[in-house]
Design goal:
Length: 310
């Protein structure tokens, strides 16, 4: 019970623990129903991960990975963390590092939007850009080199079990609870594959009838935040055991759907969300009466400088 001073059971309001921290604000993101783009007879829902404090679904694994490394005695405040990422994980880790007292080096292929780069630097991250044509694979190799040469700790979101665990123990349960157990299909884009792996595992334990689909770019397509990995670089955290399937989406359709979400639904979402929404709309059309939820990884304002919404 709170007293007149705002504290709990007589505790002053400014006592440690009286108020939530940034980490406490991660998760619990809302879901909204599409009004105009959903096929008749079915329901399409968007889970707005851009409402996390650092602006994307990657806030969840960022805090989860740091917390796990601290529990395992691998890092302590003041240490240097290095990570290779296409953007959102870098922003989330930069924010987490700032509030938890870590130094952070981000390795990212050239070509990321200016908004993303500026946001990472605003949080105090040291940004190292690698040649775009060598892709994320080379960025991962450079991060490993920095780890060796500078004594940094590489969390390695591609092999870190704390990445999918964040979604298995939180995101999946949120989806089930927020849809009041009515969801029939869930769509997650595939970048590190942490979201789709964790959500499918979590739902398999509480609602195994729910079909979870992954989304990756069609051959030759480039969609920020999602990708199809060559076998030698396939993230080791990926687990397809509980997936109903993996769907491909063309780059142009992802862009067109992102534009349609903004102009017809009032949802300014990122391009990976456009790809996820496109697949969700397809599944809803193929399964009349279904309730299809897609995870929208981030907001569209991180891509305005690219001109895709112009």
């Amino acid at each position: 019970m709170n007293d007149a001073r705002g504290g709990k059971e007589g505790r002053p309001a400014d006592a440690p623990g009286a108020f939530p921290t940034l980490a406490d604000a991660v998760g619990g993101t809302p879901i909204v129903r599409l009004h105009r783009l959903a096929p008749p007879g079915s329901t399409v829902l968007a889970k707005l991960e851009g409402n996390n404090p650092a602006g994307s679904v990657k806030d969840r694994p960022a805090f989860s990975m740091i917390a796990a490394a601290e529990r395992d005695g691998l890092i302590a405040p003041g240490d240097l963390i290095v990570e290779a990422t296409s953007g959102n994980t870098g922003i989330a880790l930069a924010a987490a590092a700032a509030v938890l007292g870590y130094r952070f080096v981000l390795v990212i292929p050239e070509g990321s939007s200016q908004e993303r780069l500026d946001t990472m630097r605003a949080y105090g991250a040291d940004v190292v850009e690698t040649p775009r044509e060598q892709g994320m694979e080379h960025a991962r190799d450079v991060a490993a080199q920095i780890e060796r040469e500078r004594g940094a700790v590489r969390l390695d979101q591609f092999s870190n079990p704390a990445n999918p665990a964040a979604h298995e123990h939180a995101t999946a349960h949120e989806i089930w609870d927020q849809t009041r157990g009515l969801v029939t299909h869930v769509v997650c884009t595939m970048g590190t594959t942490g979201t789709v792996t964790g959500v499918s595992r979590g739902l398999a334990s509480i609602a195994p009838h729910v079909q979870v689909y992954g989304v990756q770019p069609a051959p030759g397509a480039s969609i920020p935040g999602i990708r199809a990995w060559p076998q030698e670089y396939l993230p080791s955290i990926f687990d397809a055991t509980h997936l109903a399937g993996v769907r491909e989406v063309a780059g142009e359709r992802a862009i067109e759907t992102a534009r349609a979400l903004a102009r017809n639904e009032g949802l300014l979402l990122g391009l990976s969300a456009g790809g996820a929404a496109a697949v969700a709309i397809d599944l809803a059309a193929e399964n009349p009466g279904s309730v299809v939820l897609f995870v929208a990884p981030d907001r569209g304002d991180r891509y305005l400088s690219t001109g895709v919404f112009g």
